[in-house]
Amino acid sequence: MEKYIEAFANAFLGTIQWTWKSILFEVPWYTNYFWGLVAISLIIWCLEIAFPWRKNQSAFRKDFWLDGFYMFFNFFVFAIAVSGFYKLLQLFFADIGVTEKSLALIDISGWPAGLQLLVFFIVLDFVQWFTHILLHKFPLFWRFHKVHHSVKEMGFAAHLRYHWMENILYKPLKTFGVMILGGFEPDQAYIVHFIAIAIGHFNHANIKITWGPLKYIINNPVMHLYHHVYDLPEGRYGVNFGISLSLWDYIFGHHYIPEDSGTIALGFPGDDKFPKDFIGQNTYGFKKGQGS
């Protein structure tokens, strides 16, 4: 028990210290997620203002500040709060004999750095794409994922507007993805994480671009806007589930882009009764009868 308590405390305090050092610029710029997130957000927001797709949408769109709060809460505050619990989970699995080596399918540690990063990126993106489908398909998960789909005007900060309960599903499955690679995370993994943040911000931004032929590989704002469409095609529980890559949606038939005006209604049936404040949105999913 003492081992678990010490591991929990070290992980929790370590995350607090790392975040605080990041804010004070005491962490190298290329691994500083706090100011990296700020920089990426400001750049894409400026692009939204300079090249707006929906020209009648204000730079300070509906729920701009709420989404900004979600962005820092989910990326830092919640990460600090649960860091100790994830460490406990790792120790528990190690104690029962479930290790990185026991689940490893491939070992990429000896591959060239560039190839390591590419495989790491592709595996994690596929795991997140699959997890995203689960969030839509099962009512228990959808009741929490509704927070993300309650956005009525799309903008970059909507990327990180999500219920913290989603991490209960995302984090273990992402960890599983890393374990498939033998528990190996490339030294330059921060490059992958920053690219994922930038693509996620961009896909939610008020900018119109599809990347030409690369649209079949890389996700884009036009494709992702239809992921948030109010009226889904009949018989579908969701479309365009891609996170960074659109590839998976085209391979498995989840792509859907009937037009590109950007004027579609966003949300979900019944969202007029969905809470508009942070507290209300984060308690909604725990109430009975909210799964549909």
SSE inventory with pairings:
Elements: H1 2-23, H2 33-50, H3 64-95, H4 100-103, H5 113-137, H6 139-149, H7 166-180, H8 189-204, H9 221-227, H10 247-252, H11 278-284
What does this structure look like?
The chain is mostly helical and 292 residues long. Helix content is 56%, strand content 0%. The protein has helices at 2-23, 33-50, 64-95, 100-103, 113-137, 139-149, 166-180, 189-204, 221-227, 247-252, 278-284. The longest helix has 32 residues, at 64-95. The chain is globular, with a radius of gyration of 19 Å.
- Major sheet, described briefly? none
**Global morphology:** globular
Structural class: mainly alpha
Average predicted confidence as pLDDT: 88
Helix content: 55-70%
Number of helices: 11
Low-confidence stretches: none
Order of helices and strands: HHHHHHHHHHH
Rg on CA atoms, Å = 19 Å
Please tally the β strands and state the result.
0
What is the end-to-end distance? 41 Å
Proportion of residues in β-strands: under 5%
Task: Provide keyphrases for this structure.
292 residues, 11 helices, single chain, 0% strand, globular, mainly alpha
Q: Brief overview, please?
A:
Helices cover 56% and strands 0% of the residues. It has 292 residues and is an all-alpha fold.
